[in-house]
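Researcher: Structure for this, please.
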Amino acid sequence: MPNRLADATSPYLLQHRDNPVEWEQWGPAALARAVAEDRPILVSIGYSACHWCHVMAHESFEDPATAALMNREFVCVKVDREERPDVDGIYMQAVQAMTGHGGWPLHAFLTPEGVPFFGGTYWPPTPRMNMPAFAEVLRSVAGAWRERRDDVVTNAEQLRAHLERVSTATPDPSDLSPAILDTALDALAPSFDARWGGFGGAPKFPQPAVIDTVLRHHHRTGDAGAAGMVRRTLDAMADGGIYDHVGGGFARYSVDAEWLVPHFEKMTYDNAQLLSIYLDAYRAFGETRYREVVEQTLAYVEREMSAPEGGFYSAQDADSEGEEGRFYVWDSAGIDAVLGPEDGRVVRAAFGVTERGNFEGRSILHRPRPWAAVGDDLGMTAAEVEAAVRAALPRLFAARAERVWPGRDDKVLLAWNGMMLRAFADAGRALDRPDLVARATRCATFLLTEMRDAEGRLSRTWKDGRTGVPAFLDDHANLIDGLLALAAATLDRRWLDDAVAIADTMVSQFHDPDSPLFFDTGLDHERLITRPRDLQDGATPSGNAVAAGVLIQIATLTGQTAYRDRAASILRAMAGAMADHPTAFGRYLSALDAYLATPRELVLAGDPAEPGTRALLAVASARYDPHLLIARSDPADPSLAAAYPILADRPRRDGLPTAYLCERMVCLPPVTGPADLAIQLEQGTAIAWSDV
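Model: Predicted structure, token format:
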């Protein structure tokens, strides 16, 4: 019989609707029931693509005896961390404070008022590897609640006080200077893996915000070592098993240091951020391989992660048929059955497929050697190997498509869609792909129309026509980021107007009157035991960091210094942290780079549909220049220049689409030819700002 999860919108909660556990959804009703029954709350937090969440569900939540114990002693609440990052953030901090570590599935035991007093992550059904059985934990906690209530409540209140201090603490501000960026790179260098790329050891995460920081450092300084870090990392990931060579897209992370064995789940936020960094690297270095990764990943997202209504879905599971990675791995016989022995021989050599395998007796496809080295072994040229592989991949994809597919989390999350909106818009502009810009436009239209509640507030989630809780800080900031990218790609002011309006809402709803930082929840969110504020980058960037970056752009576009001042105050508060711990504050470093740089404004006077306008835009878009802002002037619309002063007095010349390249409202001579604009972009404006 379904429990109280049956009417949930979250695919993760729906996975548990037939458990014998009497799950409640998070909310006032669950807390009220705990108070009325004088029972502690067990909150279990996870997400649909979480492998160990599935494991614990099968081992414990589907077990009638364990479920009976849970139902007798606790009010049991299931939470999708992706829908409720506020709830997850509070109890993750609590569990980390109590145990020194965290992860998912996350379990916290709360007083009926929602205050945590004990917690952990995964517990097995029987004791193993120094972990107690889950049932033992349940009995111990229930016994403490009955027999040592005063001690439990005292500890809970102490933990509540700790969480309140953490959520309201503001670091001491520091001055902002390029020295912070240099110090951060010096701190990153020792953790760089020169052999395999990336930062740190196993398990190894892509960390796109950190890669972006290093790429920006190369752009600012010309440091060849920084360029080498970026290229080695991107090459190794694209060669590794973390990348899906058959279908495109990246898995969540690698369990080893060499990017070979992934944790097979695919997340929209990972792929959106990696799309952006591979695109930037393609523009910076001209490496065709990076463009191929971008286009293959975009094709994967469009094919497998696109909602018909216009948004993008959230994730694909690691598991299928009860096994992690089963959908993605191959053996020699399977490849030969699809391709035949001759073509199979080439593909097996190219992708490291052996009889022994590299993952539980099967092989994860990866590129251990260059095509030339493979060709030497096979008596072929590198071009012949590459051609054979390219011809084989569609056949492998078609054969793989006949397998049982991993589950898909088909809810739409606003923050992650903002990231993917930016990726599609930037790629469409940089690669001269109008189809990608059109797809980005469809996404933005969906987000701004369907992901609003009855009062017009943006919502965090959407599924099957139903919106969820109000949007959080990172939802607003990432949506603004995507809209600014779309405005540059389309040269349409409506996206600028929407971005500015949402920025104003973000400032009013999320500001902290006692500090320069934003809270993660708005004024109209549910009141929890503390108002959460997570300042570090995690798998997704901190909302405060993204907010600082977009406010800097909006300040340049609007000429309103208040936006820039607010961004600067955020960065000053985080200056020490980003210098000392760059892997946890990479997105702040990117925002600081933007703040310290002289922004370059490219104003195009011309109809976006005109070939001449598109040619000028294409020249500017093909370059890597993280400080270039692009917008279109329209003398026929006086309100445009009033809202965005950089667009004032920018007419066409000689009736032709015209480009104005400016720095702080001082411009080079206007040009109408793409070649002339390319020269200006290459040389810069050569304006000295020593007195600014």
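Researcher: Any notable elements?
Model: Confidence is low (pLDDT under 50) at residues 685-692. Residues 149-168 form the longest helix (20 residues).
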